[in-house]
Write a structure and sequence with these properties.
0% strand
Amino acid sequence: MEQPDKALLEDFRMGSNRAFEKIYQYYRMPVIRFSVSIIKDEQEAENIYHEVFMKILKKRKNIKPELNFNSYVFTAVKNEIFDYLKALNRNNCLKERFWERLQHEQHECDQVKEENLTKLESIIKNLSPKRRQILEMNYFEKKSYNEIADILMISKNTVKNQLVKAKFILRKEME
């Protein structure tokens, strides 16, 4: 969907539900992503999004289509996030839940990384011995194609082909 233009903003200002729905849908994902990047809580980001648009709906008569509506929306979101963070600061229970979510998110992220690393090691172990050796020499020992070719007494082209095939297998299996 295209960014809301002056005509759509004017329709919204005059009370058009269709215009409000288009604007509401246009900003949904960018606002939620922006909010989640700061507060790390998707549910609360969704609440902030709805709260901001309810305020914008109430003040729609004051909207000036010739001004930057995008800045208006994100300034309102930023202010709503500040209000949320102030409330967090006042309420220790909310603060504890906020930190628990951050720690839980970090723990889950570490688990996913560990699982991916284990999977990657398994895939590498299942490569043919020669392909695995070439891959390990290139990635872990930082040897060039020429150095690997000289050590293993094979052509540089063979080294390149084996690495391309190994990378293809790794990508395919990690999906």
